[in-house]
Amino acid sequence: MLPFLIVVACDVVIELHDYQHAKMEVRAEALRNTQAYANLIADRLNTRFTELDVASAALQLPHTNPATPSPQMGEALRRYLLSRATPYTFNVLAADGETIQWSTAPSGTTQAKNAQTSAADFTPLDHSGNHLLGRIQYRDDTGDAVLPLLVHGDTDEHTGYFFASNYHLDRLLDIRELPANYRRGWSFTPVDTRDGAVLHARPDSSRRSTPTPAADIAIVVASPVDDYPFSVRLAVPESRVRQTYWRHAPSRWGIEALAFGLLLSAVAVTIRRREREQMLQLTRLTEFNSFMAQLNQCISQAKNEEALLQEICDMAIHYAHLKIAFIGRPDENGSIRMLAVAGPAGCMDGVSISVHPDVPEGCGNVGRVWRSGQPIFNASFKNGEHTAPWREWAIRQGVCSNAVLPIHRDGQIWAVLSVYHEQVDVFDDQLQVLLKEIATDISSGLEQLYNRRLQTALLDNSVVGILLVKDRIIQMTNTRVAQMLGLTPDSLVNQSAEMLYADREEFERVGAIYEQLRTRSEVRVAGVRLSRPDGRVMIADFSGVQLSDINGNVSVWTIEDVTSRDVAQRLYHALVNTADAVLQASSDTEMCARACSDLVHDTLFHAVWIGRMEPGYRLNVIARAGEGTDGMDALDLRAMDEVPVPLVAARAWKTEALAYSNDELGEQAQAPWFDFVRRNQWRAVLSTPIWRGGSTWMVITFVSPQPHIFDAQSIALCQRVAHLLGHALDTLDAKQRVEKLQVEESQRARHDPLTGLPNRLALEEYMPLALARARRQGTAVGVSMLDLDDFKLVNDSYGHEAGDVLLQELARRMRAGLRQTDYIARLGGDEFVVIIDDLDPLVPVAQATTVLDQLHVAVESPFQVTPESRAVVGMTLGLALYPLDGEDPDTLLRRADAAMYQSKVTKATRKTWWCLASATVARPPTDNAPETIAFDAYGPEAAELLTRARSFLARIRHDFMERFDDLIGETPDGKRILSVFTAEELAHLKEQQLKHLGFLLAPETTRQDIVAIAGRIGTVHALSGLTPTLLSESYSIYRRLLIDRLDKAMLRASEQYHILLTTEIRIQDDKGAQLQAGQVVEQTYFSLLSENLPVTDRSLTDATAQEMEDFGQLPGIQAAMLFRASASGQLVVTGTGGPQAQKLGNAMLPVLAQPITEPDPSFNQSVTGIAWRSRQRQHCASYVTDPRVVVWRDVMKHLGIVSSLSIPIRGNDGQVMAVLTVYGAYPNQFESLLMQQFASGLQQRWEQIWQRYPSPLPAATITEPRPR
């Protein structure tokens, strides 16, 4: 519709333009015709004046009198005038211009006088002063209009004469001499320009003519008559313009029609192009749909995973017409290994793809998909940094766009499918949906293939024969059936089931059961006689299950030997059901309940229960299912002395070993619960322990109504079920412990241990969210930095324990005083941050004032710091407002901190206990201080200030270091860390701290210098057990000492403020970089625990070697060694890792060569030996100060080893199977709570690894030596 309207509008504009053009054409034609007519009139007048000039010249010959020409002259003049095309008269007038002295007219004077006027009525012409033109006169006799003409005839001999002639207007205005096309259809109007009168041939001609109405006049043109006071006007009617317009319309419309046709053709071409594009898109969708259909068909028929993956890639090229397709997954190094590739030969040769984000090859689409698990569609390789490593390869291969999709297995990403197309931006929304469906189908197909292979493996390894029968034609069979019948599986498929039976009667007997099978869906047929090729008859029991199939009657039959009628099938179901139970359960209660319920479903057992013997040997059942189990609560099941044969479950619990009875009715005949056992047909009972965490947790009891059911096969299955449950419970426990550790660690990492308030890490996570929320909602946020006044006095007066009590009570009061939407965090010491959320952006200060007034209530009453003492403290707070004072957390905290310290500096003169950050910009600390707009702590002003205050700051640093032991050692963390330092080491530590503080406040230090050095120091501090709390506390102590010294210094208020501000900014940068480095160390250590356990298809040696190699690469680890006792009692190193492991192993060779069953003093004095004997984790904070390891001191010092940790690895029986010892480069490396949690998780991981493999060597039993 829009193109049509555009065309119509264009046509209207063109027609209007053409109409104007026609109008201009008519105007030009009218001008041409009027000019021609004016020229015709001028020529006629010029001719008449020329004739008069000739006549006057003849009459004015010498010696002649013009008034009385000779007869000959008069006759000659008459003949001359008569020879003109239009004869006229000629008069000679006297000097008065009125008296006719001579005339060529027959009646001379009278005729002439009627036509003449006074000479004063004539107008001389511009081009000739002798030519005069009179006004229009009308003859009395005829009424004709004439135009009088005069020629002044003055000469030297004759003066005062005029030669006159009248020009008839009908002749002068005659238009017949104009060309026909000039006069046809035109109506000219001559006008005398002297008076504007219209020239008419007769007086009444103006009345006879019908003027054109003014409304119908389109154009009016006028052309002057050259050299004469006349003009010719022409009024062109609108009809004339329309006539011209319509005359040109056919040709114009033809052109417009042609243009319109071309436009329609262009539209048609565009539509056809769009249709072709849609057709191309539809074709592409059809191709991809065909690819997906072929893919699903291929998946349904696939038997081999590798062949399926290659077939998928080939079909992507063949059906979807993609250029390249591959499926790959990362190897152990993180490089993509191609599982299948399709495309041009060698298309992927030399292509490097990784999943590591820290290398360019890992930042591409494949690596990003592997890490995120989400598909990525790349429109072009030309743009984007992530495609740069493969841009040249894409050009060589002629590919432009790319799609990468994840392939999942077991809920986790397993591989990636990457496809490439020759066109740019080819993967539109519809293709993206199809590709996602294809990736989902591939994932499902791999699962189906795995399930089919698993099903086939289970069927082929089943101890029972299985048949799939449709309309009594054998469709599928397993190997067991063929073995039973002495046939091959292929000889049975697609054959009539009649060939199985010994005779026709037996075939019809089983056939009669099909009616019951259709109604009941499941039947059992006992004692069926089957024939074998050797002529023997085999007796078997059939179990049939009806399947729903619209194409026929499909049934599955299980064939069993009579001697093992239900055993094989039901044991199989028990194992599968147990596997389902442990896989689907999320808790131990659910797992036990599911296991019991599934184990009585179509298995050997009609009752299963799980319980334990409580004190007093009373049986406590926690899960049960099957016949009779609902009545167990009413029984007093105990291990009674008067019962000849104890309960099977009691025997299993007491001995921690399997116990069973194939004749439970006979054995329990004297028991109080015999009637219960007999009523429920508990003929055979087996109980076996469920081990959990290396000890007996529960016993699982299997009950069967058939006696003597527990043979070697069924006993093995029951043990397998118990082992499977125990392993699943251990796995569940390990998972829950790791999750609990992660939750606890996350809680500890984000909360201050003293006050329970969020800490800096939690604040750093909360602030961006709060600011983002305020940005969305259009609200303001107040960011406050709070510091207590006189808190140091409390510590000095009552001790740090009293200070801790005050901080705890203060935190409680502040939480109670704040709104639920507000947030408070402790940075360390007596520094807090308060986030005031949801402020009105129009009046944020007023609302914040209300909140702060309520907050100040927390210090308005004294604190009971000891039973006998109460303390009073004040508050100083700086408030920055978002977005007025900044839009990011760092800026807001800095400005709030600056406002707080400015308020502290002016504490003696301030009016309020808090200061607004915007006020610090508007007003300097003192009236004569310079205005502070944006102070740069690393700029020239700060450098100049630090240079002048260098000696002052140096004294403060020395004072701080002199009090370092007292200040830091009072905290629990400080005591723990400093306790392992010798006097020399402590002096060295103070010296290093003194240098670092000097470096922080050196004028030439830049922020980049601080961040770089703080990163290395932060790593050392994290490995040395220095907690973020202690780091913040130490800086807070230094800051308070600085404030105290500044109060007494002879410095201007602005200088004090800027020194505080510079110190705070640089300390915060240093502390932030150290904390970030510490978090990296923490994440590196704990990421090792989250790695998948080694696969069981590798040997224990290979598994432990990889684990030790990974562990040895952790920061701060000098060596890691895995010790194991051989059967002969010698210590064996079965795995090592770390840069100093080889040298340490060589140093230990003398000890390792000695048997350890008889304790050796050197071995006893090692952390490894102590851990082995105590079966508990052992650690050495410092080889320099720990007296237990004095014999190893020199060796460790030579190797740069300062601390160590030994972790015993225990088996299911609680015996130590091995000891993992790690050696650190820093003191206290394994002493912190965080490292203790890591050690606990590491111990659990190694014990799980050890339990996954059979023990390669018997462990020597080593006990703690008896004290003498």
From TrEMBL:
Keywords from the named record: Hydrolase
Entry-linked SMART domains: GAF (SM00065), GGDEF (SM00267), PAS (SM00091)
Domain GGDEF: 779-919
GO molecular function: heme binding; hydrolase activity; oxygen binding
Any matching Pfam family: GAF_2
NCBIfam families in the cross-refs: GGDEF (TIGR00254), sensory_box (TIGR00229)
Record-given protein name: Diguanylate cyclase DosC
Species: Komagataeibacter saccharivorans
